Amino acid sequence: MPRALHFVAADTSEAQAALVEMRRLYDDVGPEKADVVVALGGDGFMLQTLHAFLNKSKPIYGMNLGSVGFLMNEYREDGLGTRLEQAESAEVHPLRMRVSAGQKLTEALAFNEVSLLRQTRQAAKLRILVDEKIRISELICDGILVSTPAGSTAYNLSAHGPILPIDAALLTLTPISAFRPRRWRGALLPHRARARFEILEADKRPVSAVADDLEVRNVTCVDVAEDRSIAMTMLFDAGHSLDERILAEQFLD
């Protein structure tokens, strides 16, 4: 049975041209009536689309018109109906970040990772607690990140963190250029774990916190935990599931 579609696209000229062409070839019934949202762009735009449709309970099928396209499918104009009928699904849950910055409290969701980053030339000093127990009393570093399985092949991988299968009930805790303790390479956390980061010497060594594309600067305390009450579905071409991509990534040179 054909699926009702709604197309969205990144702001790039290539993605906007593809949007015009796809709407010429296929009916766009709008966001409310659609069974599937087709996102035209790169990985960053896929994350934006997941956030934009949080409360719509609609699967997202991405077509790559960006650079890496790890979360996307190949862009082709023909046979979209067949591809969608045969598509494999992956369910993802976001991290919920709660941030204190002065007197201001901010909450945000992240489908890839929450990262804490130094804002100046001086390294950050962080205290790390997991489930209310101090695990590292002082980490001197450029930053640290908590990643979901879906995000483990993104910034986490660049920071030499482990790749996780998409259905792993785990989160990665990965330091960024740790100076002391120098040999600490991070940790794997149960997905139920609650991580807290307290910024030491925050005035002298300011730190920002980033949840996907939302940044909060000059933070003093950051709490991160997975939110299983929220689930989004991404669709992938048959034989190219997110599971398979994550597995294959571990065998690349």
Q: Would you mind describing this structure in some detail?
A:
The protein is of the alpha+beta class and 253 residues long. It has two domains: 107 residues, Rossmann fold; 132 residues, Probable inorganic polyphosphate/atp-NAD kinase, domain 2 (Tumour Suppressor Smad4). The strands form three sheets. The protein has a six-stranded antiparallel beta sheet with strand order 6-5-16-13-8-9, with no helix packed on it. The protein has a six-stranded antiparallel beta sheet with strand order 12-11-10-7-14-15, with no helix packed on it. It starts with a strand and ends with a helix. The model has no long low-confidence stretch (mean pLDDT 94).
Order of helices and strands: EHEHEHEEEEEEEHEEEEEEEH
Query: So, CATH architecture of the largest domain?
Result: Sandwich
Strand content: 35-45%
End-to-end CA span: 41 Å
Which structural class do the helices and strands define? alpha+beta
Number of domains: 2
The CATH topology name of the largest domain reads Tumour Suppressor Smad4
Shape: elongated
What is the number of helical segments per DSSP (H or I, 4+ residues)?
5
